[in-house]
Amino acid sequence: MKARVGQEVIDNFGWLRAHRFLLLRRFSQASILGLFLLGPWFDVWIIRGNLSSSELLDTVPLTEPWMLLQSLVSGYWPEATLLLGAALVIAFYWVLGGRSYCAWVCPMNVVTDSAHWLRRQLKVRSQINPPSSIRWGVFAGALIATAWVQGLVWEMINPVSLLHRGLLFGMGAGWLLIAAVFLFDLFVVEKGWCAHLCPMGVCYGLVGKTSPLKVIASNREACNQCMDCYVVCPEPHILKGPLREAKQGSSPLVSPQDCTRCLRCMDVCSQNVFDITASLSGSARTKSGEQ
Amino acid sequence: MADKRSHTISRRQFLHNTAKGACIAGVTVAAMGLVAKPSGAAAPQMLRPPGAIPEADFLDACVRCGLCVEACPYDTLKLARLFDAAPMGTPYFEARTIPCEMCDDIPCQQACPSGAISPDLASIDDARMGLAVLIDQETCLNWQGLRCDVCYRVCPLIDEAITLEAQRNIRTGHHAMFIPTVHSDVCTGCGKCEQACVLEVSAIKVLSREVAKGELGSHYRWGWKEKEKAGHSLLEQDVLDLPDRRPEGG
């Protein structure tokens, strides 16, 4: 067993190169939270509200699509501001593709990444390994419940919106729920929240599914099967096709629906297998010219 | 043959996956049903911002963004936290802590992106955030014949939303009591009265209108109002003649 994920990259190109996207991601998460905190803490109002819905520079409305979807399903038709805000956010994440929100913006990502890191350090093994597709059941169930009972019922327990709102407006007992998710990810199900339960991830997956930006295993002939990308990938099942099934003629494109665009695979790969490509068609060529 | 087999498997797998998905959806719905609260179950003293649409719709419409909270210049509005009586993330205020100052430009309304705080509210005087109720006559100083009058004095709609109604003071026999009287057709529920009440615990409280207001049966008519409307009694003389009730054996 290797000492450390991405050791070869660290040895050859330095620690920074092996963590560039991780650092960028943490910077992105911190600066977005920081922008929101500037208002309440320092009275500098670049952005108001929270991730559920906000107003940028007192003009541009931004709305979380999952929030809008819940409101619509509950039978409420909102004001145009909210619809416009959701359209802008959807357009933004469609361009970035995949579930970029999950990796680059979501405040919960830090919590679940920490749980996963600690899980690896403690070598926790659990018996419960549900397929990640159960999130579709949760997604459907949450929407059915919203249509059925009074109010946006998922928001009564949604730890994602709770965490961001809590950091800005006061957390109260909300830490309990965040701690519960952390412990669930640490001891019960590996990547339990983000990769199995969260319906917001499903929602963003649908938004980013047809994005022109894609992660591609363009240099997959060079893969030396070190498996580091599988270890760091939050959704490892998406790597199997592009990497292992090249001979069966599978596309080198990484499925954009589950990919969080965290780009950790690019960080840890010593053979530079992965790249980002822009194309509107579903097919793409690898370096050797195969399609 | 191989084709057929792979078809069979995929169909079975499809049914299997669908059933599993339905189960998980069912579990989620049940779990959500447990955390859901029946409408109007929020504490009666957690008041919504001015212009908030009816509670049942409000819970569908509010996106828990806090823009109204940040727009409020008096820090009146708060967002409910986990385990608070109001559903998590929704804005509310408590009159005794910080009441609504009834800004003319209604900044919380302007900030709301969803319409949970209705843009139709044109004047803050038309807001119906709750209804002040002089709930404890046993401690209200005015009810004891004293001239506290504080709730009446601080009311932004003095002499409209709260009036002082003179009553005979039976205790002394020769004084008047000036009873603070709230008029539900004018009171906005801003909560200034509750905040200002000089008692340790306020005798006048702003409650949600659902809790505070009674409602007449739709068939009910006030006889004297009908009489006034018609200009004469609606009962024709001699039509109604009930037997006189006399003492037993009388």
Question: Would you write up a description of this structure?
Answer:
The complex is a heterodimer of chains A (291) and B (250). Chain A has 15 helices and five strands. Chain A is mainly α. Chain A has two domains: 7-11 and 210-273, Alpha-Beta Plaits (2-Layer Sandwich); 12-206, no CATH class. In chain A, the strands form two sheets. In chain A, strands 1-2-3 form a three-stranded antiparallel beta sheet. Chain A has a two-stranded antiparallel ribbon with strand order 4-5. The model of chain A has no long low-confidence stretch (mean pLDDT 85). Chain B is α+β, with helices and mostly antiparallel strands. Chain B is 29% helix and 11% strand. In chain B, a hairpin with a 5-residue loop joins strand 4 (162-169) and strand 5. Chain B is extended and about 90 Å long. The termini of chain B are far apart. The chains are: A mainly alpha (291), B alpha+beta (250). At the A-B interface, strand 1, strand 2, helix 4, helix 5 and helix 8 of A face helix 1, helix 2, helix 3 and strand 1 of B. Chain A: InterPro entries: 4Fe4S_Fe-S-bd, 4Fe4S_Fe_S_CS, Electron_Trans/Redox, NapH_MauN. Chain A: Pfam families: Fer4_5, Fer4_7.
What's the arrangement of secondary structure elements?
The complex is a heterodimer of chains A (291) and B (250).
Chain A: H1 7-13, H2 15-18, H3 20-42, E1 47-50, E2 53-56, E3 60-63, H4 65-73, H5 80-96, H6 100-104, H7 108-122, H8 134-148, H9 159-169, H10 174-188, H11 192-197, H12 199-208, E4 213-216, H13 228-232, H14 237-244, H15 264-268, E5 275-278
Antiparallel strand pairs in A: 1-2, 2-3, 4-5
Helix pairs in contact in A: 3-9, 4-8, 7-10, 8-12, 9-10
Chain B: H1 2-35, H2 55-61, H3 67-71, E1 78-79, E2 91-92, H4 107-111, E3 131-134, H5 150-154, E4 162-169, E5 175-182, H6 192-196, E6 204-207, H7 209-212, H8 223-230
Antiparallel strand pairs in B: 1-2, 3-6, 4-5
Organism (chain B): Neiella litorisoli
GO molecular function, one term (chain B): 4 iron, 4 sulfur cluster binding
Pfam family, one (chain B): Fer4_7
